[in-house]
Structures are given as structure tokens and as C-alpha cells.
Design brief:
Residues 332-351 have a biased composition (Low complexity). It is a single chain. This protein is α/β, with parallel strands linked by helices and 351 residues long. The chain is built from 14 helices and twelve strands. The chain has three domains: 5-61, 434 Repressor (Amino-terminal Domain), CATH 1.10.260; 72-174 and 306-335, Rossmann fold (3-Layer(aba) Sandwich), CATH 3.40.50; 176-302, Rossmann fold. It has helices at residues 15-22, 26-33, 41-54, 58-61, 81-86, 88-103, 116-128, 147-153, 176-189, 205-220, 235-246, 260-272, 290-294, 306-322, and strands at 72-77, 107-112, 134-137, 157-160, 171-173, 195-199, 228-230, 254-257, 282-286, 300-303, 328-330, 335-337. The strands form two sheets. A six-stranded parallel sheet has the order 2-1-3-4-5-11, sandwiched between helices. The chain has a six-stranded mixed sheet with strand order 7-6-8-9-10-12, sandwiched between helices. Strand 8 (254-257), helix 12 and strand 9 (282-286) form a beta-alpha-beta unit. Helix 6 (88-103) packs across helix 14 and helix 11 (235-246) crosses helix 12 (260-272).
Length: 351
């Protein structure tokens, strides 16, 4: 008979060990210790007995959270307040996080910061001041300067980004490279030869991943002149980038945008310049939203369930806090939703 987990040298007991010994799920253990409905009195007692035998308690799995406000999760976003309020992605993402936090009677502490140095200092202040029990990191850069100081801090963190960007932090991510390649292949299959991309800031890791995949797929398909313009995600910059592309001698017949706001702005510029969508110009947005569906014609988009994405991030953070997760977790890749804004070059308009 093998030794109990608590007696194996160097082996830290986890919630999974308690669940296995009690013959229940990890969720049932969490419900029992949080005194929530869904577990019978008999099962609850069996869970408590298993925990006692292993010497486990929720506080033991997170000893470094002792005395902290573990019911508060921190999220800092480097965005102007005005832009965040207009960006459907973050509204959906945060609502997904909030749904999971509400299940556990926890709260989200959200702060907008001006730069990465301010963000790092804020997380250090929160952790050392025992304000939060863990944090969600977003918008990773290549060689992100936040990683070394936050790793040294020892704060439980879940990173939102491709594992190549997140410095070994447990991460939740989508395959942006495959999605960007699918967008280009779709437009090429419609007959487009001149495809452009209006992307986010060049320093952002996910923008760089999309840019590289866009360029590689254009080359693979033998398409020349795939121009890419970096912007700050706001509508005004998306409009300016679109105007510049459409005034060039070899203007594109299709444009892929890194978010929905810029795609809507691009549609307005096309109308301003007397171009018909999709007759003269096809438009494809990233991050499907209500904006895409309300625009006329409705915008084709690379869609994924952003609310579910936020839920998975929050659940992963609690797993990190409880010591049951250390690796990466991929959520479904954004998939193409064709609508009226894309068609073959010179095609009749569709709704």
C-alpha cells in the first residue's frame, strides 16, 4: 500500500489528493470547505475526514496567502479609460471573470495604468500590502519587463497570452497564429490578391504573432505586397490607417483588422471614399461583437467566446492559488464567421 500523500517526502498535499481520498470531484471539496450547497451532509463529512487524515486545509494550500485578502483578485490594464470603455473585448472578458468570482464570493480589483512600470509597481504594492490573493496579467510584450520582478514577488499569477511570451507563468491562450492564417486563406480563396492588415501596437506579443502569421501565409500563397500598419487599437487610428491604404496606388481589395472598433471605422472610411463593401473592398474584423453584427453590411469576423475566455482565466487563477495548476491551458482558436462585409473582388453586395 502506498504512503498517504502527506507522508511522501517533498510531496505537498493538494485539493486533488483530498478529492481522490474522499472519492469526489475537486469542485465538491471546494463546495464543502466554502459551505456552499450542492454537497450532501454525508459527503461533506467524508471530505472533511479525508482532509483531516491528509492534514490539508484551504489555508495550507495557500500558506503564502495567510493574512491576505485572498477573496480579491487584481487586474491592471495599460489602456486609457476612454478606450477601455469602448472596447467590447475587455467588457466581455471582465464579465467572464466576474461570473467565476461571484461563484466564490470574491471581488475584482481593476486599475488602469499608464505604462508597464506603473503596472509592475502596482502589483508589488498590492501584494506587499496584502490587498490581493492573486493577479491576472494581460497584454504581454516580447521580453516583457514585468516578468522578472513579478516572478521574484511570488504572487500567484495567471498570464493571458501565448506561452512563448509569458515567462513560465501559468497561462491561458488562444492560437492567434492559426486564426490569422485562416483569415488570409479565406480572403485568398475568395480571389483577393492584395490583402492588408491593420494591427495593434507592434510591441504587443499577440500583435507580433498575428503579423508574423499574416506575412508567412501571404508568402506561402504567393501573394505579394501584404501591407501591415500598426495602430493603437482606437477607431481614429484604424480610420487613418485605412485611408492611407486606400489612397495608395495599389490599394488592397481586402483588409483584416485586429479589433472590431477599427474595422467599423474602416467601413466608414470606405463609404467616405465612395467604395462599396464588399463590391470594392472586403473587411474582416478580429474579436466578433455586437458592433460587428450591427454594422451595415454586418462585418465578417474571427470569433471566439470572450466571456468563456474570461471564465477560464479566473478558474485557472484559483487553481494556481490552490496549487493544482502550473502549466498552460489553450482555449478554442478563433474561427471565421463570414458575413456581408466579405466577398470575391467585384462581387455584388450581400447582407
Amino acid at each position: 500500500m502506498s504512503a498517504p500523500a502527506s507522508r511522501v517526502p517533498g510531496r505537498r498535499v493538494t485539493i486533488n489528493d483530498v478529492a481522490a481520498l474522499a472519492g469526489v470531484s475537486k469542485g465538491a471539496v471546494s463546495l464543502a470547505f466554502n459551505n456552499r450547497p450542492g454537497v450532501s451532509p454525508t459527503t461533506r463529512e467524508r471530505i472533511f475526514a479525508a482532509a483531516g487524515e491528509l492534514g490539508w486545509s484551504p489555508n495550507q494550500t495557500a500558506r503564502n496567502l495567510s493574512g491576505r485578502r485572498a477573496g480579491i483578485v487584481g487586474l491592471a490594464i495599460c489602456r486609457p479609460a476612454r478606450l477601455l470603455g469602448l472596447e467590447p473585448f475587455y467588457m466581455e472578458f471582465i464579465s467572464g471573470i466576474e461570473d467565476v468570482l461571484a461563484e466564490r464570493s470574491c471581488s475584482l480589483l481593476l486599475r488602469l495604468v499608464r505604462d508597464l512600470d506603473e503596472e509592475t509597481a502596482l502589483y508589488q504594492e498590492w501584494w506587499r500590502g496584502r490587498t490581493v490573493g492573486g493577479a491576472i496579467l494581460v497584454d504581454f510584450h516580447r521580453d516583457d519587463p514585468r516578468i522578472p520582478p513579478l516572478r521574484a514577488l511570488g504572487m500567484p499569477v495567471v498570464a493571458v497570452g501565448h506561452p512563448s511570451l509569458t515567462g513560465g507563468f501559468p497561462s491561458v491562450w488562444t492560437d492567434d497564429a492559426s486564426a490569422a492564417a485562416e483569415a488570409v486563406r479565406y480572403l485568398a480563396a475568395l480571389g483577393h490578391r492584395r490583402i492588408a492588415r491593420v494591427g495593434g501596437p507592434s510591441g504587443l506579443g499577440h500583435s507580433g504573432i498575428r503579423a508574423a502569421a499574416f506575412e508567412a501565409t501571404m508568402a506561402e500563397l504567393g501573394l505579394d505586397g501584404g501591407r501591415q500598419v500598426a495602430t493603437g487599437f482606437v477607431g481614429e487610428e484604424g480610420a487613418r490607417a485605412t485611408r492611407g491604404l486606400l489612397m495608395s496606388p495599389d490599394r488592397p481589395t481586402a483588409i483584416v483588422y485586429d479589433n472590431d472598433i477599427m474595422a467599423v471605422a474602416g467601413a466608414a472610411v470606405a463609404a467616405e471614399m465612395g467604395l462599396s463593401v464588399p463590391d470594392d473592398l472586403s473587411l474582416l474584423a478580429w474579436d466578433d461583437s455586437q458592433l460587428c453584427r450591427l454594422t451595415h453590411p454586418p462585418l465578417s469576423a474571427m470569433s471566439h467566446d470572450v466571456h468563456h475566455f474570461g471564465e477560464e482565466v479566473a478558474r485557472t487563477l484559483f487553481d494556481v492559488i490552490e496549487g493544482t495548476r502550473t502549466g498552460t491551458h489553450q482555449v478554442p482558436t478563433p474561427s471565421l464567421t463570414p458575413r456581408g462585409s466579405t466577398g470575391p473582388p467585384g462581387s455584388p453586395g450581400r447582407v
